Every structure is written in structure tokens, then in C-alpha cells.
Amino acid sequence: MTNDNSILQSILSYSKSQRIGIVLLFTIIIICQGFYFFCDFKTFDDSGKDKANWLANQSVIDSLKLLDKNYKPKIYPFNPNFITDFKGYKLGMSVAEIDRLLAYRKQNKFVNSAEEFQAVTKVSDSLLKTMSPYFKFPDWVKNKKEYRSKYAKNEIPKTEKIIILDINEATKEDLMKIYGIGDKISDRILEQKSKFGGFVSMEQMNDVWGLSPEVIERLNKHFVVKSTSTIKKININNASVKELSQFPFFRYTLAKEIVIYRSMNGDIKIEDLTKIKGFPVDKIKIIALYLEF
Q: pTM of the entire structure?
């Protein structure tokens, strides 16, 4: 009670203007609190209504377009050979008609006229009448006669007769006429021929560095081995180690093995070649043509 009296005395001790200010302050606080509790501060978004109205209007416009008899979707010229499922559906074709066309195209066949298109797809006359004005075929289909006469007269290349030459008599110029053989490779072929005195088989082209299988195939079409009179033959039973080692297919180690085998078993016959240590068996048929027994 004493505390309440002291508070009251302290308030009464304020001046009149101070007491009025305190009362006004409490009044303002009460008004603000009431405004906060009783007023709705929610914001309203009208964009949803606008969007809904716009969509509704657009639907009306679309439906009016469909009802308008004069409105037609624009169709551009197209090649009927490349109609897709979606394109065929838009043009009014049934699934079965589209499938017939796609099955025909899978056979790598083409329709070249509206009549052929109908024969393949079995579309009705009415649908063909609406579609065919937009068919666009290649120029050569439209002007077959013109293209045939053009190619018959001017464009069909004449088959050039291949002249087959002896590889052992071929010059550098002859070799360079083959597509894929240039200056250096032609020199390598002639150098290889010089080592042996001549080739005994076209298989020896595989030993020329830089010749691809495709170029070797072209060589085989234009050259063959005809004459072998110039080749350098070596007597395997009389030649020394040095003479044997100078033969392109032999090395010094193999030359020694040949002489050792010869000294231990007598004269070498062609069937003995496979018994010699280190002998290149894979080339025995070619090597044998350079040897004398």
C-alpha cells in the first residue's frame, strides 16, 4: 500500500502538462494496438484472374478458328517419301497407311509419282486429291527423259581397257601411273628389282616399304611377272658364307647355318630348306625360285 501511495504521489507531483502528455501517450498506444488487432493487412493478387481470363479468351479464339471454314493450316511442298508418323497424322493418313509407306521405304524403294504413292499406301482418292498438290519430287524424277538422254550421250564414262605389263620391264613412268605410287615408292620398287635382278612373284610387292594393300591390289591389276631370265640365281650348294649373306633374303647368321647344314648333310635339296635353323619358311616358295640346287 505504501508503494502505491508513493507512485500516486510521484504522479501527482508532475505538472499539468506532463500529466496530459502521459495520458495522450497511453491513448495513442491503445489506438495502435486496436488498429493492429482489428485490421486485415493481407494483399490481394489480381494477376491470377487476369491469367484465367486471358486463357479463356484464347480458347474462344482457337475454337472460332476451327469453326471458320476459310481458315486452313498452311502446308508447304514436301517429298512424300519422307513422311513421318506425325506428318502423316496431320495430313489425315491412317496408321495403316503410314506403316505401308514406312515399310516400303525400309526396302530402300521410292515412290516417284502420286499414283505410286496411292498404290503403296492405299490412301483414298479424296485424300490423295488434297495431298498430291503439295508433293515435291526431285528434278530427275520430273525430267527422266532429259536426264537419260544427257547421261546416255555425255556422262556415262567409257570403260578404259587395262594394259597389263611385265613388272620386270616396267619403267618409273609406268609405275607412277598407278594411283598411290609416287616418285619415292617407284624408286623403291625399281631398287628392289635391281637387288634380285628381277621379280619372280607379285607377292614381293608386300616387301616394298610404303606400299599399302590398296596400292598393291592396283599393281596386280596392271602388272604381272612374265620374264625371269634376268634374275640372279645363287647355287646354295657351292656358294660361300659371304656369297650367301649377300643374297637379300639371307643374313650372315643364316648363311653360316646353311653352310653348316651342307657340310654335315651333303648337298641341300629344296625339301631340306625347312630343316635349316632360322630359314624364313613363310617365303620359301619365292626364295626357292632364286636358288640352284
A: 0.45
